[in-house]
Amino acid sequence: MAVIKAVCFDLDDTLLWDERSVSETFQEVCQKAEAATGIKAEQLEEAVRREARKLYESYDTFAFTKLIGINPFEGLWAKFDGGTQPEFRKLQQLVPAYRRDSWYQALLSFGVDDAKLAEELGELFAAERRARPYTYGETFKVLNELKGKVKLLLLTNGCPSLQQEKLDGVPELVPYFDEVIISGSFGRGKPDVSIFRHALELLGTAPEETIMVGDKLTTDIKGALAAGITSVWINRDGKTKDDEIIPDYEIGHLSELFEIIHNRSAS
């Protein structure tokens, strides 16, 4: 096997603990809503998630957000004020109403008709999410170990301004990387094979000399496999496997990367 010369990392839920950020934000905001309305926080969170997905999929920007890889809950706090595509400007116009209406429809499903409270909760969600940038405990230990030994590239789906805001929340992260690719700036997101080929061009490495590490089979792993890049699925919480998208490696902790790199380079 070829010596591994580069490692590409996904950002959300691979290096940044986005699920924790989103979960804690919902808990904080829904508990305040419970105090104001009596609606159980857990039930309201479920309703907001449901209504947000429904609204998000109803907009004519939905196909674009799927192409770039922007999920409904990012829309609940993103500004969409970056990116050159016209769809980002449409999203920028849509998000104030999207935030309010997601909470309004959720409250209404419990019989609470209060547009002012819905708007307040929507704005509070955005502020609380911004206050919660988390990384995993192993993130910087692994990057410290890899830095200088292989090239490092960050490959993330999302709106350029939102992903940049996430990175700005953890300013010590970006200096580890030789290259950063945000799908909204490139024009297509993972799993489109073109963004993986673009990563290889920037790195100057062959597919067999490169590893892609990510938490999502349908984007990180599927695209890496299509590009011929060795794929490593970080599955920290025992997600269900997919019979059709089979990663080259599955790990539960980023430190397991070292053995993979060593073994492939020694073969």
From TrEMBL:
One of its GO terms (molecular function) is L-phosphoserine phosphatase activity. The keyword Amino-acid biosynthesis applies. Keywords: Amino-acid biosynthesis, Cobalt, Hydrolase, Magnesium, Serine biosynthesis. It catalyses: O-phospho-D-serine + H2O = D-serine + phosphate; O-phospho-L-serine + H2O = L-serine + phosphate. Pathway: Amino-acid biosynthesis; L-serine biosynthesis; L-serine from 3-phospho-D-glycerate: step 3/3. GO terms for biological process: L-serine biosynthetic process. Its cofactor is Mg(2+); Co(2+). InterPro entries: HAD-like_hydrolase, HAD-like_sf, HAD-SF_hydro_IA, HAD_sf, PSP_YsaA. It is an enzyme of class 3 (hydrolase). NCBIfam families: HAD-SF-IA-v1, HAD-SF-IA-v3. Belongs to the HAD-like hydrolase superfamily. PANTHER family: N-ACYLNEURAMINATE-9-PHOSPHATASE. Catalyzes the last step of the phosphorylated serine biosynthetic pathway, i.e. dephosphorylation of O-phospho-L-serine to form L-serine. This is Phosphoserine phosphatase. It comes from Paenibacillus yonginensis.
